[in-house]
Amino acid sequence: MEEENKMEVLKIQGVPASLGIGIGKAVWLRRENFVQSEQFLASETERRFEVDKFRNSLKEALKELEGELEHPKRKLNEEERAILDTQIEFLLDPQLEEEVLTEIEKQGKTAMDAVIECVQKYVNVFRQMDDAYMNERASDIQDVGSRILNHVASQKRDVLHLDAEAIVLADEIYPSDALAMDLQNVKGFATQVGGLTSHTAILAKSKGIPAVLGCSHELMQVKEGQCLILDGEQGLIYVNPNEELLRVFRAKLEEAEEIAKRLAATSAKSAQMKDGTRINVLVNASNLDDLQRGMKYAADGVGLFRTELAFSGKEGLPSEEEQFQLYKALAQEAKGLPITIRTFDIGGDKPLGISDLEKEENPFLGFRGIRIGLARPELLETQLRAILRASAFGKFKIMFPMISQVEELRKAKMLFGQVKSALTLAQMPFDEHIALGIMIEVPAAAISSDVFAKEVDFFSIGTNDLCQYTMAVDRGNEQVRALYDPYNPSVLRLIRYTIEQANLAGIKTSLCGELASELLAVPLLLGLGLRQFSANATSIPALKAAIGRFSAEEAQIIGQKVLDMDSSELIKEFLQSLK
Questions:
Q1: Does the annotation count 199 as an active-site position?
Q2: Residues 118, 199, 215, 467: which is the catalytic one?
Q3: Is 161 assigned a catalytic role?
Q4: Using one digit for the tens of pLDDT, what is the confidence trace for 13-31?
Q5: Structural domains in the chain?
Q6: Which one of 9, 111, 404, 577 has the fewest beta carbons within 10 angstroms of its own beta carbon?
Q7: Within its chain, how far is the Cα of 198 from the centroid?
Q8: Distance (Å) of CA 44 to CA 51, 105, 114, 576
């Protein structure tokens, strides 16, 4: 230990993906790297043999996944089951089988080479998508591909056995890696790639394991067996920490355990500030499972339901009846709590069954969101009909994405009025007073929020896109990622102005971007006047606890101090000092 104390402590910065502190020895997760042989199969006999090998491998991979899903001794949570279901769907996709068979039968490739090529093609497609959620689905495809390739090669996947407290490091941790691992001694995950929406992050949060992802090539400096401290809140990894640093973080670990006990007791209660001011905490959802998780933490409803993600796994556009059945199920599960449905936010990077959308140079600035809905009114009308029909079974609100000018909103409202009239004529029941709102995610909408506030019933601020557009930063671009900062004074001024204009017009504002889940931002957002947060389910207990630490007056003072600051560094330092 004396030698380690003399060594310089190396700090590695990554993305804070799952809160908590982990202390343990570095253990690298290694996996087989399958390489194409470029072998050409000339005879039909060889090709038939490889076809059979692939089909058998596909069946075995499917059997393996279904076995994990139904294993009697393995207690899978909802997140884990959802991940396995997604992978089973991909294995059952006839397009994958068809493409691999074409490579074998027509191009004379081995089963190994054909699977590698087809899987990599899918991975590249998803990696190029600008939507963070869809981008991260590439790891699912790689994972499924690895399962198939293990069977093609007639080998078993290595399982990581840990006999001591460990921080598991990898280029990327696939869902199958985490599910096969004995997590008892896992004190943290650290990866070179991956972000907040990756399955590594989802699994880590669901298991309460601290995680720092996206550490890039710097993680390669860590050697097997080195002592590590992983700080899941700051996104930092300390390599070779000295005794003083270890003492500090062990004390933080003990404090965190005490806080966790208190959070378990308060998560079932409504969120209130220290002076009794009531704050709504809602859940962001993409499916029924997300809603159920939110209800478990006594969420006040759904603040954002991402409809394009709910239907992202199917071929073609969802029909009115398919949408109606999903929205009705949501209403029944919510038991009278409000559900805010965002109409399809689709575009060149996530077509959702629209086959003729052209590839765009910059999909974020292109044909997406409400722009598609207005250009193809049959798509928007179908969705509005489904939501309105479902509103007879629960409390729904509708919001339009990517609104940048009032003319777009008025056209959307006109379509909405026409759909309502048609349903009335058909004597179909629906909520005639259903609320309409818009996403404030384009700076133009925030700057004109005084105008929009007169046209709608509510606002929902999407800080992810608002920050990206305000700072002119592609949040997926590593070279400029540091400029993507929601604490930038310009972004905060737009948030403050939007809330002010909503309050003046007597309408409510919620915030549904990642910033709503950041505990550091809680007093600031409260101080800017926000009274409705919409966050991922697992963030709700800590969010409620953080809200209870401040009174409205204290938060207002904090908000004003922050608005007087001219850099995000000063703002974050000040907010850190409040802990």
A1: yes
A2: 199
A3: no
A4: 998 888 889 999 999 987 7
A5: 2-19+161-242 (3.50.30.10), 44-152 (1.10.274.10), 269-577 (3.20.20.60)
A6: 577
A7: 7
A8: 10, 8, 16, 68
